């Protein structure tokens, strides 16, 4: 966590004013919005290039804030850095209060596994440390932030360094792993799984075929999305309860968030940020899966 010490006077400034702007170092300009529509063009431009994850994509952030964030009384702030009229970085933040302290963190909370700003491909600040200090101080003064809770940040992603992850950052208990998928599933299995694991997989698939016909289902219509989402949540709850792990899957706002995200692409089923799948064994949905993508808006 980062303490700011800017609260008392800054809280008199409203974070709801239209597009707060401030000149910064290195020829940069800071812009702060609380209306996602005003940041839409920069958001769309940056999430399609450079280092990006689903957790900072516009559909994910807005879906989460309008459901889970709203249930907690949290507010959204969109911070962007510009140079010569071009967006270089965008940082969505959620604002909330705990015990009289105003905090800023990444949208998504525990539903987000990796957090960092969206950045223009190839852009890196000349002095990340000084920029980070100036940026966080300027945001805190404008929005009345007492403490930043910036968690689950990688030091770099896809070869692009994270300017918010300074040397003082505490390493996570476990590392993040990523890998490219392949169109050829058999080739992917051969590359990522050993012979013993592949044999076990084939044995399981053959046992399932003995139970009933295997049918792969991809939820494209709203009614099917709701049905598969309920199956997904039920299966997750059963597994977590069996393991004795606390979970948020039974919360109404979690279901609302997932459903909002699954339908965010509208009628264009090829550009939805969340897809729901099921492998049917006869009439029963055996495993269900939710897959997220940054291809949507």
User: What is the domain total for the residues?
Assistant: 2
Q: How many H/I helices? A: 8
CATH class of the largest domain: Alpha Beta
Quaternary structure classification:
single chain
- Work out the helicity level: 25-40%
Euclidean distance between termini CA atoms: 30 Å
**Number of distinct beta strands:** 13
- Describe the global form: globular
The CATH architecture assignment of the largest domain turns out to be 3-Layer(aba) Sandwich
Rg: 22 Å
- Fold-level CATH name of the largest domain: Aminopeptidase
Low-confidence segments: 7-16
Q: What's the main sheet like?
A: 8 strands, mixed
Model description:
The chain has 297 residues and is an alpha+beta fold. It folds into 2 domains: 2-161, Aminopeptidase (3-Layer(aba) Sandwich), CATH 3.40.630; 212-292, no CATH class. The protein is 34% helix and 23% strand. The protein has helices at residues 7-10, 40-47, 58-71, 128-143, 185-192, 195-211, 222-243, 252-262, and strands at residues 2-3, 20-23, 29-33, 75-83, 86-98, 101-105, 118-119, 147-149, 156-157, 160-161, 214-218, 274-281, 284-292. The strands form 3 sheets. Strands 1, 2, 3, 4, 5, 6, 7 and 8 form an 8-stranded mixed β-sheet that branches. It has a 3-stranded antiparallel β-sheet with strand order 11-12-13. A two-stranded antiparallel sheet has the order 9-10. It starts with a strand and ends in a 5-residue tail after the last strand.
């Amino acid at each position: 966590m980062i303490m700011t010490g800017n609260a008392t006077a800054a809280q008199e400034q409203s974070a709801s004013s239209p597009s707060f702007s401030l000149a910064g170092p290195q020829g940069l300009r800071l812009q702060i919005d609380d209306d996602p529509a005003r940041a839409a063009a920069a958001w769309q431009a940056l999430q399609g290039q450079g280092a990006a994850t689903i957790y900072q994509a516009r559909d994910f952030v807005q879906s989460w804030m309008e459901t889970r964030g709203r249930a907690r009384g949290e507010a959204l702030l969109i911070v962007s850095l510009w140079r010569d009229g071009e967006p270089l970085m965008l940082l969505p933040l959620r604002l909330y209060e705990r015990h009289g302290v105003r905090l800023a963190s990444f949208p998504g909370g525990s539903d987000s596994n990796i957090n960092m700003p969206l950045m223009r491909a190839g852009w890196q600040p000349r002095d990340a440390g000084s920029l980070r200090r100036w940026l966080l101080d300027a945001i805190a003064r404008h929005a009345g932030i007492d403490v930043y809770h910036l968690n689950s940040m990688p030091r770099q992603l896809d070869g692009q360094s994270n300017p918010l992850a300074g040397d003082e950052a505490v390493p996570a208990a476990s590392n993040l792993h990523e890998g490219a998928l392949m169109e050829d599933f058999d080739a992917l299995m051969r590359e990522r799984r050993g012979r013993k694991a592949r044999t076990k997989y084939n044995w399981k698939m053959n046992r399932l075929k003995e139970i009933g016909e295997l049918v792969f289902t991809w939820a494209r219509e709203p009614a099917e999305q709701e049905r598969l989402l309920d199956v997904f949540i039920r299966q997750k709850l059963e597994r977590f309860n069996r393991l004795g792990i606390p979970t948020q899957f039974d919360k109404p706002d979690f279901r609302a968030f997932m459903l909002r995200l699954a339908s965010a692409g509208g009628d264009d089923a090829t550009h939805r940020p969340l897809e729901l799948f099921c492998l049917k064994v006869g009439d029963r949905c055996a495993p269900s899966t939710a897959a997220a993508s940054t291809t949507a808006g």
